[in-house]
Write a structure and sequence with these properties.
alpha/beta, 5-stranded parallel sheet, 13 helices, binds SN-glycerol-3-phosphate, binds magnesium ion, HAD-superfamily hydrolase
């Protein structure tokens, strides 16, 4: 359990608030920390009127790492100790699905090579496969891609003509949209066996291939001056192609901010942090600090948390705030947001 809480004087009074921080556009601009992000987190480490460590989580629609790897990267970059138990990424919630798929084959999309498999296996999905595994099995599945040698070496040697896929989990943002859309359509249209004859609509409905997207973001803020297309844009690309092929959209499950499932998962994570630090008790007032009205502010408002919209990410001040996602407070950056929340609760 993180040093952050081990040093706690458990007699310390439970602070009256907790935080959830978005990462991209709030704490990080691409690979670099945003100005004052470090200050904001150091305030929570005890340099505040409560003289207590204020528990917080990082709640991101990003991913592509195990929670342990992400915590290590962020701790080093932000110069503050962050524990894996404080990290809720887009795909963290899939841990709740492991029992259902322990012995079933799942396709894990996002990132490159075997990255998603390592994450899926760390969650307990023991039959997880990637796009690279499919292309290493038969490169003519998508003749426009030539796998790098490293992906061929790390690929699972699997015969997908004899390996029915039961579910497709889009863990993280796909890199090769063409190949991923093609393979998704193959799996769904052929009832799980890539390359088989297409099954009819009734068979598809009776034996559906579950499709889960973990991040609905149409756009997100990296270190480029304008927002970039996110996993939500990939989802729409897949659905547009699938509809052209079959005449209908494919039913799917959506996780990630602003979905209730993800905020419920975040609330449980925060509750665990507070209870381990201060003993059992109710979760205090929660403050979500984000840069995207569609995901961070919408989800926090729906979860009855206070929401702080910062000007360091997706939100464009010149365009104004969408009236459907008005935050509790606007702030120039994450430190201003933290100071406002603490002063409000002191
Ligand atoms: O892929 C990451 C992006 O969609 C958003 O990340 O941290 O702003 O929720 P974040
Ligand atoms: Mg963001």
């Amino acid at each position: 359990f993180p040093q952050f809480f081990r040093n706690l004087n458990v007699q310390a009074k439970r602070p009256p608030l907790g935080f959830a921080f978005d990462i991209d556009g709030v704490l990080m601009g691409g690979p670099n920390p945003l100005p004052r992000a470090r200050n904001a987190l150091h305030i929570l480490n005890g340099n505040n009127p409560f003289k207590a460590k204020i528990p917080y989580i990082l709640l991101t629609n990003g991913g592509g790492y195990t929670e342990k790897e992400r915590a290590e990267k962020l701790s080093s970059t932000l110069d503050v100790e962050i524990s894996p138990s404080q990290i809720v990424q887009a795909h963290t919630i899939l841990k709740d699905y492991v029992n259902e798929y322990t012995h079933k084959a799942v396709l894990c999309l996002g990132g490159t090579g075997d990255t998603m498999r390592k994450i899926a296996e760390s969650y307990g999905f023991h039959k997880s496969y990637t796009t690279a595994d499919v292309l290493a099995w038969n490169s003519s599945v998508w003749p426009f891609t030539h796998l790098p040698e490293s992906d061929i070496v790390s690929a699972r040697k699997v015969d997908f003509s004899r390996t029915p896929i039961s579910a497709i989990f889009v863990f993280h943002d796909p890199r090769n949209w063409g190949a991923d859309v093609q393979i998704m359509c193959d799996i769904i249209q052929s009832g799980g066996i890539i390359g088989n004859h297409y099954v009819d609509e009734k068979t598809r409905q009776n034996n559906p291939i579950q499709v889960i997207f973990c991040n609905p973001d149409l756009i997100w803020q990296s270190d480029f001056p304008r927002p970039r297309l996110g996993q939500g844009a990939f989802r729409e690309s897949f659905q547009a192609v699938y509809k052209m092929l079959t005449g209908s959209y494919y039913p799917y499950v959506q996780f990630g901010k602003p979905t209730q499932a993800t905020y419920d998962y975040a609330r449980r994570t925060l509750r665990n942090l507070f209870d381990k630090a201060y003993g059992p008790g109710e979760l205090p007032n929660m403050y979500m600090i984000g840069d995207n009205p569609e995901s961070d502010i919408a989800g926090a408002n729906a979860a009855h948390w206070y929401s702080v919209l910062v000007h360091t990410g997706v939100y464009d001040v010149t365009l104004g705030i969408p009236p459907t996602h008005l935050p509790t407070k606007e702030a120039l950056d994450v430190e201003e947001g933290v100071r406002w929340a603490i002063e409000r609760e002191a």
